[in-house]
């Protein structure tokens, strides 16, 4: 019998993929969101984590830049 | 409230959406016929001219033979446009469709070709109008009016003098461009930002479009307004035309147009008159041409610094949208394009392409001579920073696995591919990911296969 799971398909570059894997690993077991790691640039994750991943990425990006105070 | 979309150059779409009776009424005016002709795509223009002196309907088949096979898509676009504008009338006969030019349009365009256009009003003799402004003065006036209007539009507090538009009118222009939360300063919306980066003609058409659709609500006929505007664009820049030649509605409208800088009103001893500016006469031209080159003012250096030779507050506000303004001298604004300032812009819905086009279109004459006008490393970096924001793509989907046999798996993956929903598959593990939209279809397909 075919089994269907609802979720979110993520497609990104390799460094971002590593970031997402790392993010997943840092979560407590109950909040792990990756369902399948499809290949090095594709994931299948829980349907409701889009916002969480995006904000984690933008936080990461902000840490990497410095704005001269005006 | 209807969603206001910002698209430049879509005035003709608005004309096309008028009801048939109004369009026919519009075509009674020769100038509108010419303006419509100007706005058509090249191939459609050719068709109109070719059919101008043909009185019998032409079958769609013979029309198709006018173009080579490669041009069929352009042919279709042209024909669709003509039908939409009711320039072409469709006549259905037993099996074939035939087209015929709209008879009012046809007669008027013929007359226009033979006699040339005669405006409903003559310029006033120079002994009545004591001293007319020179073209430069007029340009400066039009520019000043327009800028003042824009400043008032984006931040009501900043304009030095206010236009005579009532605040309710202003609010109509602002709807869609500004968003006001309770007890907060109004903020520009995504479309508001895009509006500011458009060139003047596109902005003008947007405002005019809002103006027209608003006056419809107040009981003024839309077709009349459009007719008057298009007619106005055929007047000569810098000549004076008497206000007495206008109808009451038109006289009410011309005051608003003066606020926008389309015309300048002047008063003599007895009579008053209006002088169309470049903004007005460019109206119908701008429907096809990309805008005329304005005098640019921005210099971008390879070190991401930005020098804008301008004293205008509006320019400063626009630059602030995507760069970090560092200091301002009386005639110079100095800023820097930084990653953070650009991220701000991207968050507000401005795209990298829009910023780059803005910088290129407004390049200072000194750098505009060079190609590229904006250093390549800067444009590339702007694009790179934008793509950096979209490194992760997410799609709602369903994942299917545990297929009973390879045949079922392959049938299912073919089925998903046919419906353009296959995102990813792994034949070895017999697993695939399919867009959420076609999940129901997939389920039925899998059930049917059992």
TrEMBL record, chain A:
Key words, A-Z: DNA damage, DNA repair, Nucleus, Transcription, Transcription regulation
GO biological process terms, semicolon-separated: nucleotide-excision repair, preincision complex assembly; transcription initiation at RNA polymerase II promoter
Top-level lineage group: Eukaryota
Entry GO CC: transcription factor TFIIH core complex; transcription factor TFIIH holo complex
Alphabetized Pfam families for the sequence: Tfb5 (PF06331)
Residues spanning the signal sequence: none
Classification via InterPro entries: TFB5-like_sf, TFIIH_TTDA/Tfb5
Localization terms from the record: Nucleus
Subunit and interaction comment: Component of the 7-subunit TFIIH core complex.
Function: In NER, TFIIH acts by opening DNA around the lesion to allow the excision of the damaged oligonucleotide and its replacement by a new DNA fragment. In transcription, TFIIH has an essential role in transcription initiation. When the pre-initiation complex (PIC) has been established, TFIIH is required for promoter opening and promoter escape.
Family membership noted in the UniProt record: Belongs to the TFB5 family.
Protein name: General transcription and DNA repair factor IIH subunit TFB5
Automatic annotation (TrEMBL), chain B:
Record protein name field: RNA polymerase II transcription factor B subunit 2
Name of the encoding gene: LOC111281169
Signal peptide: none
InterPro entries recorded: Tfb2_C, TFIIH_p52/Tfb2
PANTHER family from the UniProt entry: GENERAL TRANSCRIPTION FACTOR IIH SUBUNIT 4, TFIIH, POLYPEPTIDE 4
Gene3D superfamilies in UniProt: 3.30.70.2610
GO BP annotations, alphabetical order: nucleotide-excision repair
Family: Belongs to the TFB2 family.
Compartments, record wording: Nucleus
Keyword Cell membrane tagged: no
């Amino acid at each position: 019998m075919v089994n269907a799971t609802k979720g979110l398909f993520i497609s990104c570059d390799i460094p971002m993929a590593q970031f997402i894997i790392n993010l997943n690993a840092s979560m407590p077991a109950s909040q792990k969101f990756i369902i399948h790691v499809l290949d090095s640039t594709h994931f299948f994750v829980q349907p409701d984590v889009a916002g969480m991943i995006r904000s984690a990425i933008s936080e990461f990006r902000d840490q990497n830049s410095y704005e001269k105070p005006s | 409230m209807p969603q206001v979309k910002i698209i430049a150059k879509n005035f003709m779409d608005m004309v096309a959406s008028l009801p048939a009776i109004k369009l026919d009424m519009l075509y009674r005016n020769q100038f509108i016929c010419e303006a419509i002709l100007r706005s058509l795509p090249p191939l459609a223009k050719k068709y109109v001219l070719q059919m101008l002196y043909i009185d019998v309907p032409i079958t769609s088949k013979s029309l198709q033979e006018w173009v080579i096979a490669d041009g069929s898509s352009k042919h279709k676009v042209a024909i669709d446009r003509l039908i939409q504008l009711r320039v072409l009338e469709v006549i259905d006969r037993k099996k074939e469709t035939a087209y015929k030019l709209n008879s009012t349009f046809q007669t008027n365009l013929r007359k226009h070709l033979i006699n040339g256009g005669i405006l409903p009003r003559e310029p006033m003799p120079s002994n009545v109008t004591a001293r007319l402004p020179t073209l430069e003065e007029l340009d400066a006036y039009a520019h000043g009016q327009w800028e003042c209007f824009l400043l008032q539009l984006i931040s009501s507090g900043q304009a030095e003098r206010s236009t005579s538009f009532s605040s309710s009118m202003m609010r109509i222009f602002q709807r869609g461009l500004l968003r006001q939360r309770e007890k907060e300063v109004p903020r520009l919306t995504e479309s508001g930002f895009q509006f500011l980066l458009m060139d003047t003609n596109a902005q003008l058409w947007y405002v005019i479009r809002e103006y027209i659709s608003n006056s419809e609500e107040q009981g003024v006929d839309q077709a009349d307004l459009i007719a008057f505007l298009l007619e106005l664009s055929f007047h000569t820049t810098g000549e004076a035309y008497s206000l007495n030649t206008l109808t009451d509605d038109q006289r009410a409208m011309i005051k608003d147009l003066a606020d926008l800088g389309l015309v300048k009103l002047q008063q003599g001893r007895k009579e008053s008159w209006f002088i169309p500016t470049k903004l007005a006469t460019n109206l119908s031209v701008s429907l096809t041409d990309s805008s005329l080159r304005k005098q640019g003012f921005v210099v971008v250096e390879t070190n991401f610094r930005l020098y804008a030779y301008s004293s205008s507050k509006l320019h400063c506000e626009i630059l602030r949208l995507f760069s970090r303004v560092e200091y301002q001298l009386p005639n110079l604004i100095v800023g820097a394009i930084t990653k953070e300032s650009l991220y701000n812009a991207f968050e507000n819905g401005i795209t990298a392409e829009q910023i780059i086009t803005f910088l290129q279109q407004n390049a200072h004459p000194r750098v505009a001579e060079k190609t590229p006008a904006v250093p390549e490393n800067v444009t590339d970096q702007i694009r790179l920073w934008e793509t950096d924001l979209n490194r992760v793509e997410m799609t709602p989907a369903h994942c299917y696995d545990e297929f009973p046999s390879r045949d079922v798996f392959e049938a299912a993956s073919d089925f998903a591919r046919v419906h353009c929903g296959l995102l990813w598959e792994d034949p070895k593990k017999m697993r695939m990911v399919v867009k959420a939209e076609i999940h129901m279809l997939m389920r039925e397909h899998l059930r049917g296969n059992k």
